[in-house]
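4.2 Preliminary Data

To establish feasibility before requesting continued support, the project team ran the inverse folding procedure on a target of 148 residues. The structure was first converted into the token representation described in Section 3, and no sequence information of any kind was made available to the design step. The complete token record follows.
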């Protein structure tokens, strides 16, 4: 929900494999395709508003590449976050912004060459960086929640 109370969503269309952005307009939803032909599964996207109320969407594609989109219906800018041949397991992505308005994406990657099963990717002035999040045996991998 944005500051004005409108509901927003990121969803997928099958069999087209498109990532869609939606905003509620009264009793109807206005849907716009934001990425065509790359979405992998219905639980592979996350969305969040930054501190300036700009909407962002993170998702992974059929090649298991993590993407970050910024914008709204008028135009979207895409960045590649990870091309580490990920083997992502649902629920795969969490997206949030820190107090300095930098994006952080958490995702599960079971690939042998990954930096770790739980990956924390963040963007700073030099670009995107990925690091492993240390886990203990009590964590249940596919049911972790992150808070702001």
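Position-by-position output of the design step:
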């Amino acid at each position: 929900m944005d500051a004005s109370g409108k509901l927003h969503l990121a969803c997928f269309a099958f069999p087209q494999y498109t990532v869609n952005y939606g905003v509620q307009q009264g009793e109807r939803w206005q849907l716009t395709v934001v990425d065509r032909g790359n979405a992998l599964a219905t639980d592979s996207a996350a969305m969040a508003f930054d501190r300036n109320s700009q909407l962002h969407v993170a998702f992974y594609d059929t090649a298991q590449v993590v993407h970050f989109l910024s914008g709204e219906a008028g135009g979207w800018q895409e960045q590649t976050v990870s091309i580490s041949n990920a083997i992502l397991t649902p629920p795969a992505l969490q997206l949030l912004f820190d107090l300095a308005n930098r994006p952080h994406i958490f995702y599960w990657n079971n690939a042998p060459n990954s930096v770790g099963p739980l990956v924390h990717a963040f963007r700073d002035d030099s670009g995107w960086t990925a690091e492993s999040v240390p886990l203990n045996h009590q964590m249940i991998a596919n049911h972790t929640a992150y808070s702001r």
